[in-house]
Amino acid sequence: xxxxxxxxxxxxxxxxxxxxxxxxxxxxxxxxxxxxxxxxxxxxxxxxxxxxxxxxxxxxxxxxxxxxxxxxxxxxxxxxxxxxxxxxxxxxxxxxxxxxxxxxxxxxxxxxxxxxxxxxxxxxxxxxxxxxxxxxxxxxxxxxxxxxxxxxxxxxxxxxxxxxxxxxxxxxxxxxxxxxxxxxxxxxxxxxxxxxxxxxxxxxxxxxxxxxxxxxxxxxxxxxxxxxxxxxxxxxxxxxxxxxxxxxxxxxxxxxxxxxxxxxxxxxxxxxxxxxxxxxxxxxxxxx
Length: 288
What we know:
The protein has seven helices and 17 strands. With 288 residues, it is an alpha+beta fold. The strands form four sheets. Strands 3-4-2-11-12-13-10-14 form an eight-stranded mixed β-sheet. A hairpin with a 2-residue loop joins β7 (114-117) and β8.
């Protein structure tokens, strides 16, 4: 698994999917308390040496067009990736290596060594269940938290790194893509609802983007995205295992951060057994 993953990474042009340019955290002046709480939490968890507090002059050296903020916090070691580009390359790689790949296929049932699709039972050496909210039978307390996202084309905006804009209800972000595209998200609503974006969320996301940079006033909305993130009560992922079946779930909004770590953890289990795990607290045997 690791060798195949490394081969894929080596074939990708990092400029297309990965940038390590740091990230910024800012807030509206009236939400300064929210910013201080957020930074206190960050300092407690990872320490103050991972970020820098910027004055306006230093901030404008990094982002010349962000002129209205009195303070910002800069995380120089953070990076961001283009998950759509990665998915496209992964799909190409799997097809080139003759992996059977079934898209838009409803799975009726997942069992040890078996997956049932359209009345057909398929057998495997091992089954990995990564169905998210479709796996409530394996994770009884699993629930969905709705998220909404905007794609904006903004030729008048030139940001070079992700910006977190703290909000009393949820953490918003603006992430730059190629060709003056920006992703603006994401709401957090406790509802398993994938209907189109609401007026309220649209206004909140656009207002935050416009406050961050006036150039978003003339941006064009390319598309909106809504979906539900799978969440467990403790907001941590969980892995259930038995012979022939491993189920992974509860990654919430951190899937691209946690997936490589969990893949390595599962590899340790399959190669060395339960005693080799680095995160045994995430594992639950169905025999317990």
